[in-house]
Amino acid sequence: MSTSIRTRHDAGAVRTQSTNPVAASGSTSNSVVRWSGAAARLALGWVFLWAFLDKLFALGFSTGRDAETGVVDRFGPAAWIHDGSPTLGFLKFGTKGPLADFYQSFAGASWANWGFMVGLAGIGIALMLGIGMRIAAGSGVAMLIMMWSAVLPPENNPFMDDHLVYAIVLVLLAGIGAGHTFGLGARWEQLPLVKRYPILK
After folding, report:
1. Which residues of the chain are under the pLDDT cut of 50?
2. Is residue 54 part of a domain?
3. How far is CA 136 from CA 118, 161, 185, in A?
4. What is the number of other CB atoms lying within 10 angstroms of the CB of residue 162?
């Protein structure tokens, strides 16, 4: 139960103090939110950035590994730097469901490759640095929903999968200002251009 204690200041003004234990522990709660938000931001940023690096150089995780033999060919022909296509394999052979034909229609297209790779790199770098969180979150949500819709229904659930969970987390991170903790968000938001266009926060 919460009670209130009325105390007087020197100037005679009346102040109300709350003895609510939840309110009393507010600073601890804020600290948990800030640091767990920063950890989630860095983790998601690494997910996007690593996907970019793996496809750029064919590091043998999802790119550069023979699905049948398991043989890894790092920096081989599957790497984007060697004209490999980061979208061809998934869009052509990994899509299913009602939108499969749509995604297969541009599998391997140059514009799709560039859009996908620039998106992965931009979202990953923004999240890692804690800057441009609103644009990073919006772009990330769009990309994740497209990836989710390319494999409907999900394998282990009628509709929910990790893509939608990541998308929700991105919105949450932008909403709580997760770029301010262990990131450059606070400094970024003081830039004149960012102050003028708040969408850049």
Report:
1. 1-25
2. yes
3. 12, 20, 12
4. 13
Q: Closest by alpha carbon to 42, among 135, 118, 123, 119? A: 123
**What is the C-alpha to C-alpha distance for residues 153 and 161, in angstroms, rounded to an integer?**
9
Could you list the residue range(s) of the whole structural domain that residue 38 is in? 34-200
pLDDT in tens, 30-77: 999 999 999 999 999 999 999 999 999 999 888 888 777 878 888 899
pLDDT at residue 26, as a whole number: 61
pTM above 0.70, yes or no: yes
Q: Specify whether the CB–CB gap between 86 and 117 falls below 8 A.
A: yes
Domain count, the chain: 1
Asked if residue 25 is part of any domain, the answer here is no
Q: Which amino acid is at 73?
A: D
How many other β-carbons are positioned within 10 Å of the β-carbon of residue 147?
20
In a domain, 134, yes or no: yes
Q: Report the alpha-carbon distance of residue 150 to residue 143 in Å, rounded.
A: 11
Provide the Cα torsion 164, 166, 172, 176; round to 10°: -170
Q: Give yes or no for a contact between 45 and 124, defined as CB atoms under 8 angstroms apart.
A: yes
Burial (CB count within 10 angstroms: exposed 0-12, middle 13-18, buried 19+), residue 74:
middle
Domain assignment of residue 21, yes or no: no
